[in-house]
Automatic annotation (TrEMBL):
Pfam families: EmrE (PF13536). The chain crosses the membrane at residues 31-51, 71-95, 101-120, 132-152, 158-177, 198-218, 230-249, 261-283, 289-308. The keyword Ribosomal protein does not apply. InterPro entries: EmrE. This is Multidrug resistance efflux transporter family protein.
Amino acid sequence: MRPIILGICAAFFFSVTFILNRAMELSGGSWIWSASLRYFFMVPFLLAIVIARKNIRPLFQNMKEHWGQWVLWSSIGFGLFYAPICFAAAFAPGWLTASTWQITIISGSLLAPLFFLTITTPNGSKKIRRKIPVRGLFMSLIILLGIALMQLEHASSISLKHVLLGIIPVIIASFAYPLGNRKMMDLCVGRLDAYQRVLGMTLASLPFWFILSLYGLFTVGVPSIEQTTQSLLVAISSGVLATVLFFQATDLVRGNMQKLAAVEATQSLEVLFTVVGEVLLLSTAFPSLLSWTGMFIIVIGMILHSYVSHYKTTKLANNQLAKS
């Protein structure tokens, strides 16, 4: 029960991102500062965690050896993920962005052939190219249906241009996040833990955020104190608390695929937490019955997809061991 509770708490803190990004946009803050300030503020907190775990030297050594890959994949996994998410907040309420973001499950599945699954056999390790999980994609269609229902209602009240500006950046982010993170996981596997990797990716993505900040400085000026404070809250809640809680939850069940699927499925609650937060804090209009139906379908789809995906991975591993 503890891993599930930790997963739910992580989903709650992750939802703060969507709520505060929308709040900053409604108060006149630029998406440029909403995105870049979060990562600037994350650095000291993550540094403190990794230093406290006495793991800072191996991280810097690995970054020195592979600095080009660190900068490239971190800029994609963090930069091209979070900047578009913040940009989309200008054109859609946070709960809609949070719901659309769940398309990353589908995007991650489509990227599967770019990665390998390592199987341990009596004759040693063996790498197998991953395949697109067809059964998982079928479950993903359920998620797409839920997103389509909500976007359909959203489109009825605004122009097509605004709908696309609220969707396309999220789709870009949905591919960038799993691509960058998985490439870095392949690079760090067996050498760095999750906390080291997140800190390293944050540091390696700083050139991206510095360039974006310079652009913001010359186009929109400096951020307000209110936006700076809210960005700090996002960094603490989503960048630190949510990440740590989610890693703890997955570490507790990493040997049990069924329980791991259950923990991952708790992240579907981000959508519901975001709805409640926006209604209470931002006086956002309460979603209609059609939108609630779409959100419910997304949650069900995420749960089914998580279980099916882990079942498939376990079955493939067992089959390969049997053949060996």
